[in-house]
Design brief:
Layout: H1 8-20, H2 39-48, H3 60-74
Length: about 80
Amino acid sequence: MGENSIPKEAAYQIINDELMLDGNPRLNLASFVTTWMEPECDKLIMASINKNYVDMDEYPVTTELQVIHSCTLNN
């Protein structure tokens, strides 16, 4: 790490504060898109967030789920 690095907690707080400036999507009355998900969806996302979804050979099951999901959304 460089000489001018900051503590990880400070870096987190700075980035979090910047993201909060974008507003709270749940309070956006101009949007007709819901931003709330069931807790189980959040768990699935967090459990798979470190996967490289571009590498279809490495994650064939994920690729299959993506195809199913895309077909569901498109119909």
